[in-house]
Specification:
Blueprint (H helix, E strand, L loop, with lengths): L2 E3 L2 E5 L6 H12 L6 E6 L5 H14 L3 E7 L2 H11 L2 E5 L8 E8 L2 E2 L2 H7 L15 E3 L5 H9 L8 E5 L9 H7 L3 E5 L18 H10 L3 E5 L6 E4 L8 H12 L8 E4 L5 H8 L4 E4 L3 H11 L3 E4 L4 E4 L8 H15 L11 E8 L2 H14 L9 E6 L2 E7 L5 E8 L2 H18 L1
Parallel strand pairs: 3-4, 3-5, 4-8, 9-10, 9-11, 13-14, 13-15
Antiparallel strand pairs: 1-2, 2-6, 5-6, 6-7, 11-12, 15-16, 17-20, 18-19, 19-20
Helix pairs in contact: 1-2, 1-4, 5-6, 8-9, 8-11
């Protein structure tokens, strides 16, 4: 089943995502920009090169120039798009497994909004729309790595012992070079492009090799990336995999004291630990609907520089990139370790979250949520229904917009309470349906 949201289009290439679809999407996307050329890149999936060729051919047939960056991470391509004020297409299925692939669409450094995405999804048009052809040229070396090194300071993290699990993904293109330039004592796992030895999504894998490596080599920290290099999971110095919510909380705790505007935007399902950190520093936490694009839209609306999604370990620093940026988060944490030692990894507040999903016909799921709303008239209806059970616990129920799935997220001060809360609402949903 093809998944199509403003965060991108994903499917099984040559199954439910056909070559003709790639051509149609690329042609429609070209109509959204007055830019004379489109930047294009891909992650390391085996189908990426063929999909990239299809997209390039479609763009050229529309008279567009194409700048081909080859294998590049999503954050690096977003940065190039922003600096050059050019449209961009990233061939990736992000955190989906290797048999999937897809496209992310970028306009001048930001993701597309819904009205723009609707135009991309318009029905295919027969024939070539213009009679002249554009040109394809190789992209220059991205400035992403050198910019991050310059911001952090070459050698500024000298001696910090770091292990990275790249799992054959696009972060290979820059992560080792950046961390070595910062002076880190680096151990690299999964450094062969396109060879996937674990789940593509590090949030859904126990990261056994990384956790063991951190312990055996006495590393200060370990980092695991997804295939296009925008998601990040942290392993602490004793080999514990920490949640994406905790990683985001820690990064924000380190960033905010340096900023004048200490407010942040996070998704509705992100931990309340963010609220604790932000309020202590005198800022305000804004919530958006779940989804990176929704977080960024709210950041732009409220003129706020920092945001993120806990579920994916996704930090967004709008002063640099309008997308999740794993390297920005990793560098923030490594610098904190250099300054304060690995004990800093235990200094952010944390709660316990449980995330469940259930196959549920969308129509029935929406009806059940409406019934829950009638039972909880004061509930937050920003995205599905969020019930604040107590000051330190909440539950969020959302129907998927693309699949027959209902998602239940619960958070509390203890694992047991969070699990009980999630289970109880899941049972209530079954009864209400």
């Amino acid at each position: 089943m093809t998944v199509a949201t403003i965060s991108g289009i994903r499917g099984i290439f040559n199954g439910d995502l056909l070559p003709a679809d790639i051509v149609a999407y690329a042609r429609n996307f070209s109509s959204l920009t007055t830019s004379p050329e489109v930047l294009i890149g891909r992650d390391t999936r085996s189908t990426g090169e063929l999909m990239e060729r299809l997209a390039k051919g479609a763009l050229v047939s529309m008279g567009m120039g194409v700048v081909d960056y080859g294998v590049i991470s999503t954050p690096a391509l977003f940065r190039e798009s922003r600096l050059k004020q050019r449209a961009a297409m990233m061939i990736t299925a992000s955190h989906n497994e290797p048999e999937w692939n897809g496209i992310k669409f970028v306009l001048d450094g930001r993701g597309v909004v819904q009205s723009e995405f609707d135009r991309i999804l318009q029905p295919r048009r027969r024939g070539v729309q213009k009679v002249w052809a554009g040109l394809v040229r190789p992209g220059p070396r991205p400035s992403y790595g050198s910019e991050l090194i310059g911001m952090a300071g070459e050698g500024s993290c000298d001696g910090v012992k770091v292990a990275v699990d790249l799992n054959g993904g696009a972060a290979i293109a820059h992560t080792p070079a950046i961390l070595k330039a910062l002076g880190c004592d680096l151990t690299v796992l999964g450094g062969t492009a396109g060879v996937f030895s674990r789940n593509v999504d590090p949030t859904n894998d126990d990261l056994q090799l990384l956790t063991r490596t951190v312990r055996e080599k006495g590393c200060d920290v370990g980092f695991a990336f997804d295939c296009d290099g925008d998601r990040l999971v942290l392993v602490d110095s004793i080999g514990r995999k920490r949640t994406g919510d905790y990683m985001l909380t820690l990064a924000i705790k380190e960033i905010l004291p340096e900023l004048q505007n200490r407010s942040v935007v996070v998704s509705a399902d992100t931990t309340q630990a963010i609220d604790d950190v932000v309020s202590e520093l005198g800022g305000r936490t804004y919530r958006s609907k779940v989804g990176e694009a929704n977080v960024i839209s709210k950041m732009m609306e409220e003129h706020i520089g920092i945001g993120g999604e806990g579920s994916s370990g996704g930090l967004v620093d709008g002063s640099f990139n309008f997308c999740r940026d794993s390297m920005l988060a990793a560098i923030t944490i490594v610098k904190a370790i250099k300054k304060k030692g690995s004990r800093v990894l235990d200094q952010a507040p944390s709660y316990h979250q449980v995330r469940l999903k259930l196959t549920f016909e969308r129509k029935k799921a929406l009806a059940a949520i409406k019934k829950l709303q009638r039972e909880n008239p004061g509930a937050d209806m920003l995205d599905g229904i969020k019930v604040n059970v107590s000051r330190r616990s909440w539950v969020l129920i959302r129907a998927s917009g693309t699949e027959d799935i209902i998602r239940v997220s619960a958070e509390s001060a203890s694992v047991k309470e969070a699990q009980q809360l999630a289970d109880s609402y899941l049972e209530r949903l079954k009864r209400l349906s």
